Amino acid sequence: MLKSLASVVTTAARFSARTTTGSWARAVEPLGRPALCIPNSATTRPFTRSIWMMRNSGSTSGYSPTLLSSSRNTPPVSCGCGGLHTEGDKAFAEFLSDEIKEEKKIKKHQSLPKMSGGWDIELNGTEAKLIRNLAGEKVSITFNINNSIPPNFEEEADQGQKSGENEPEIVSTPNFVVEVTKQASNTSLVFDCHYPEDESGHGEGEEESDIFAIREVSFQPIGEADWKETSYTLNTDSLDWALYDHLMDFLADRGVDNTFADELIELSTALEHQEYISFLENLSGFVKCH
């Protein structure tokens, strides 16, 4: 009887030990496995929740790890643009504000000056196009105010002039292209013109020297935006004086003379100053991050 009772107790103890050991093993085993290997297992949920708890800043313990936090340490900014703001930017913005006010004070034209002779003007940023129709001919003149300010004012400043006195006036003298088109022609006669620095004419003994000069002449297909290099180009550097004078007279008969060249300088100078002020305003807004 005692042997039977001892056998029952021993068997029960062994069964209890196997049950406890198996349950502990099953509880620990999933923690040692990668969660990605068992995507359908319910044991992956505690791991997912643990990530959420580490990211949740409202935990009762007050502990908020930064490793899995969505916020990062970024430099503080004064506005919502996310850009960098420094003391140098602040000083730069103040300088630009004063510069814009001064440039607006010395602005000569509230609107662009008109060209005499019935020229229509088309603007595209820094590029301007003047158009005139004459008895079956179309004359168009294109110029760009970029890089149109000659650097001669720096030379005058180096000659010992006092700052603020007799400061040279900034004048825009752009290169310009004259295109003459006839109705019955498939090509245009194109003149590449510029303002020479010495403003000297080609002819000797002239009562009035030309303030602009022809650099090149060529026939170009109508509607071509770029100068075709395959078309013959006549350079005026080594051109006969008589032929050059006839070319200048050809332009003068179509309204491109010294009067036109003077008005073009005034128009280009006003447009350049207008674009300069606009650039300063855009630069100020960029620095301020507006």
UniProtKB/TrEMBL annotation:
GO CC terms in record: extracellular region; mitochondrial matrix; nucleolus; plasma membrane
GO biological process, one term: apoptotic process
UniProt keyword annotations, A-Z: Acetylation, Adaptive immunity, Apoptosis, Cell membrane, Complement pathway, Cytoplasm, DNA damage, Immunity, Innate immunity, Membrane, Mitochondrion, mRNA processing, mRNA splicing, Nucleus, Phosphoprotein, Secreted, Transcription, Transcription regulation, Transit peptide
Region entry Disordered, spans: 150-169
Domain of life: Eukaryota
InterPro entries assigned: MAM33, MAM33_sf
Gene3D superfamilies, sorted: Mitochondrial glycoprotein
Primary localisation category: membrane
Signal peptide span: none
UniProt xrefs under SUPFAM superfamilies: Mitochondrial glycoprotein MAM33-like
Subcellular location: Cell membrane; Cytoplasm; Mitochondrion matrix; Nucleus, Nucleolus
Membrane topology: Peripheral membrane protein
Homology family: Belongs to the MAM33 family.
PANTHER family: COMPLEMENT COMPONENT 1, COMPLEMENT COMPONENT 1 Q SUBCOMPONENT-BINDING PROTEIN, MITOCHONDRIAL
Protein name: Complement component 1 Q subcomponent-binding protein, mitochondrial
Organism: Anguilla anguilla (European freshwater eel)
